[in-house]
Amino acid sequence: MVVRVAVAGCTGYAGGEVLRLLLEHPGVEIGALTAGSSAGGRLGEHQPHLWPLADREIQPTDAGTLAGHDVVFLALPHGTSGPIAEQLGDDTLVIDCGADFRLTDPAAWQQFYGSEYAGSWPYGLPELPGQRQTLARTTRIAVPGCYPTSVTLALMPAVTAGLIDGHDVVVVAASGPSGAGKSLKPHLLGAELMGSASAYGVGGVHRHTPEILQNLALLGASEPTLSFTPVLVPMSRGILATCTAPLANPEIGIEQVRTAYAEAYAGEEFVHLLPEGQWPQTQAVLGSNGVQVQVAVDAAAGRLVAVAAIDNLTKGTAGGAVQCMNLALGLDETTGLPRIGVAP
Length: 344
Ligand SMILES: NC(=O)C1=CN([C@@H]2O[C@H](COP(=O)(O)OP(=O)(O)OC[C@H]3O[C@@H](n4cnc5c(N)ncnc54)[C@H](OP(=O)(O)O)[C@@H]3O)[C@@H](O)[C@H]2O)C=CC1
Ligand SMILES: CC(=O)N[C@@H](CCC(=O)OP(=O)(O)O)C(=O)O
Hints:
Protein name: N-acetyl-gamma-glutamyl-phosphate reductase
Number of strands: 13
InterPro entries: AGPR (IPR050085), AGPR_AS (IPR023013), AGPR_dimerisation_dom (IPR058924), AGPR_type-1 (IPR000706), NAD(P)-bd_dom_sf (IPR036291), Semialdehyde_DH_NAD-bd (IPR000534)
Distance between the termini: 37 Å
Subcellular location: Cytoplasm
CATH architecture of the largest domain: 2-Layer Sandwich
Largest sheet: 7 strands, mixed
Structural class: alpha/beta
Keywords: Amino-acid biosynthesis, Arginine biosynthesis, Cytoplasm, NADP, Oxidoreductase
CATH class of the largest domain: Alpha Beta
Shape: globular
Mean pLDDT: 97
CATH topology of the largest domain: Dihydrodipicolinate Reductase, domain 2
Strand content: 15-25%
Bound molecules: NADPH dihydro-nicotinamide-adenine-dinucleotide phosphate, ligand 2
């Protein structure tokens, strides 16, 4: 089976990463490539690494251009996906890399995004309990945000095993600037970034806060609370999320924690619980769909410490999106997805 796939937002970081993965996918034929102001140009002008597609013309992003494909990836700015998706038939598998359909609570959407609520689609994190069955039966998928992917996978086994109850979760997560997309922003200029790390979205205002809370609640946390601080660091890709939360009781030790994590991730192809003493590194997952996880018990503080590393553009966006496509098409979910990172 070969499916015909269109990519909207092909000139951006997320769309480019979707295409990098699709070019190596055995079950895919690449159809329309669309964008906004770049329409009319050639892909090679924007994505020099995607050389087999260099001469392909970039088309405008509209339903007419995207129609007639089996799968459409939307890698567009927030608020742009909804109106397009509405015009695509239910028989087309539409995978949105943006945030438009991630949140189930309209009030949270309004508070953090400030625009009209578009609705919610099945959430594209296959590792969540029961989610593979949901993804296998849908033609609409909302790919998670990059920080929520890393934080959710860092904490999932602890929540489902009752080792933490989800209150007072504190997350500090470092990300490379590719997470912010390609469009020019003054704080992302090379001179501002190089040799410097800076917190942003501080004080509970980052828009991934409600998405992480939604995931913790879905995993069984009754009234989760979260303090989330993202940090911009000078590496092009990668997220390192350090998450801590009070242990449910003082008897919980590292052996119980490691057993819960090992059991939860035993069958997962992409999530690797590291051997004791090794800690996740972004470089080790670079360009791969892998997730490195490690845990510790800080007995003096009475807290669990869980750390996860992902590539924000791969498992954090495009790799997760392709993994979901595979599931929705009934393919092996690892098809076309690199599992090994890069070193040094
Ligand atoms: N970067 C990341 O790590 C992650 C990104 N995402 C999400 O993926 C989506 C894309 O992000 P990213 O690739 O980083 O962003 P970029 O800014 O790098 O790319 C945006 C893409 O959208 C196109 N575009 C912009 N405005 C319009 C419009 N009005 N109509 C049609 N096309 C338009 C751009 O085309 P043109 O060249 O013509 O301007 C470009 O192809 C966003 O929703 C983002 O939140 C999700 C998780 C992680
Ligand atoms: C470094 C950086 O700026 N990162 C982005 C996160 C990008 C992401 O996950 O995407 P969504 O916008 O689709 O949620 C940010 O903090 O807004």
